[in-house]
Specification:
It is built from 20 helices and 2 strands. The chain has about 500 residues and is mainly α. The protein has a domain of about 200 residues. It is globular, with a radius of gyration of 22 Å.
Length: about 500
């Protein structure tokens, strides 16, 4: 390790130091109101280093275990944005944690540090360590409310996360045994050599089993069916801002490492058809199961939990659209990055409104939004635009993202999958518009106006501005996504 290696992870180091600074400040200061401004100002430091790194050419460090390129920086932008908006949404919510507010914000920052490391990881051991750094603080955050439901949420997340990590680690061990290396580039070369002249992956049982285990491990991280069982209970029991953090940042970094592994390890003609078929089936099932079960939910956090399962299915359309000729067809992966950026803005806006409403009503049911148009027109308007974007209706970024990702499926002869996606988008309109109908047409038993605090309202406004602005002019995000994918295509 040398100075150049450390320079590559300066954004992660600054994020971890900020987490430590928050703990120390909280220990010696009784003014908890300064924690949020300190976090937000501190996040400018890793953001500055990411912007500086984007001006340089791609570099590898730590003996090839880390890669800082436009791809990793794209996801670091998403993680920093999500972290800032979640902390801003928590400004009033975190007061219920009394003397533990510093630990709350520090755990968010430490989890974000793990996510940023994961976006740059190019070696199996590094990937696993970064995953654990991401998961363990999140498990603690899920149980941060001193209530039975929150404790169950944290325990379920911890246990199932441990099981999925064990499955993933076993798959990695088999992959190492098959190839003799833990570096993704070397693994890809070894697999290409082993599969040359063979009928395909089915000729190598160890490789097939490792691919299945790795798929299961990462399927948990992105909450895809049939590995989604943790999401509804964890989303319902966790603090609302943490639910938002899980729904966007965790999912984004999960797809980041999946894409890097696909391009560096499984970009092989003998594997591509098997991978495309598996991803297409998982995508269709995730969309359908998530949307159909979401229809019956009365708790809005559980509804959005099943919604995020369906959203994972939409994003996986982009994975299925990766054909054997990946160097020429990048529309699927670019669509994934555009979708993740749009989903970050949209979902954070929705959860910021949920945070504000639950602070006022103390209730997470959909009925708590009854008459919101009269109690807080601005919150009702923001929530309406968020629901419209999640459906995929113009002029929002959700519409542009779905057009891009379904178009990639059509380009790669997966028209049937694009059709399934469109049908599921129509189905999802039922439960998304149910929330809109409740806000505008239902009468509330309590008619007193809701005055949202500055934190959640600011987070909601920033997020919804991004949702609409990039819906009307998506070119900046599309260009960033194309540059990011071009650095890993090879």
């Amino acid at each position: 390790m040398n100075y150049i290696d450390l320079e590559l992870i300066i954004p992660e180091i600054s994020m971890a130091l900020l987490a430590g600074l928050i703990i120390v400040f909280d220990l010696f200061s009784s003014n908890k109101r300064l924690l949020v401004p300190l976090c937000l100002i501190g996040l400018l430091v890793p953001l500055f280093f990411c912007i500086a790194a984007a001006q340089e050419s791609a570099e590898a460090g730590f003996m090839g275990t880390m890669q800082v390129d436009d791809f990793s920086i794209f996801f670091k932008y998403i993680i920093i944005l999500a972290t800032a908006l979640v902390i801003l949404s928590s400004a009033t919510y975190a007061k219920r944690f009394d003397n533990h507010q510093g630990e709350y914000y520090s755990l968010i920052l430490l989890s974000a540090t793990g996510m940023m490391l994961l976006a740059s990881a190019t070696e199996l051991i590094t990937i696993y360590i970064a995953l654990e750094l991401t998961a363990l603080p999140t498990a603690a955050l899920a149980a941060f409310i001193r209530e039975k439901k929150s404790a169950e949420s944290g325990m379920k997340f911890l246990i199932l996360s441990a099981v999925s990590s064990a499955v993933l680690l076993y798959g990695m061990v088999l992959l190492y045994g098959f190839t003799g290396s833990t570096h993704l580039s070397d693994i890809g070369t070894a697999i290409a050599t082993q599969l040359s002249g063979s009928a395909g992956i089915t000729d190598h049982g160890v490789l097939l089993f490792s691919v299945i285990l790795i798929t299961a491990g990462f399927g948990f991280k992105i909450s895809a069916v049939p590995f989604q069982m943790w999401a509804p209970d964890v989303y319902e029991g966790a603090p609302t801002p943490i639910t938002a953090f899980l729904s966007v940042a965790s999912k984004a970094v999960g797809f980041a490492i999946i894409l890097r592994i696909l391009y560096m390890v499984f970009e092989n003609e003998a594997l591509s058809s098997d991978w495309t078929s598996m991803m297409a089936v998982l995508s269709a099932i995730s969309m359908s199961v998530g949307n159909l079960i979401a229809i019956k939910q009365n708790n809005i956090k559980r509804m959005l939990a099943y919604s995020t399962i369906a959203q994972a299915g939409y994003i996986m359309v982009g994975l299925a659209a990766m054909t054997s000729d990946t160097t020429l067809n990048t529309s699927g992966p670019v669509g994934i990055l555009v979708y993740l950026a749009g989903y970050t803005f949209t979902n954070l806006a929705a959860f910021a409104v949920i945070t504000a409403v639950s602070e006022s009503s103390g209730d997470d049911s959909i009925d708590s939004f009854s008459g919101l148009i009269k109690k807080s027109p601005i919150l009702a308007g923001i929530m309406t635009i968020s629901m419209i974007s999640l459906i995929g209706i113009p002029p929002t970024i959700g519409f542009m993202a779905k057009i891009y990702i379904f178009g990639a499926a059509v380009e790669t002869n997966l028209t049937w999958l694009a059709f399934v996606g469109v049908i599921n988008s129509v189905i999802s309109a039922y439960y998304y518009l149910r929330v809109v109908k409740t806000m505008f047409l239902n009468s509330a038993s309590e008619q007193s106006p809701i005055k949202p605090s500055v934190g959640p309202l600011s987070a909601a406004v920033i997020s919804i501005v991004g949702t609409v602005a990039f819906g009307l002019y998506p070119r900046p995000i599309i260009e960033l996504a194309r540059e990011a994918i071009s650095t890993i295509v090879g």
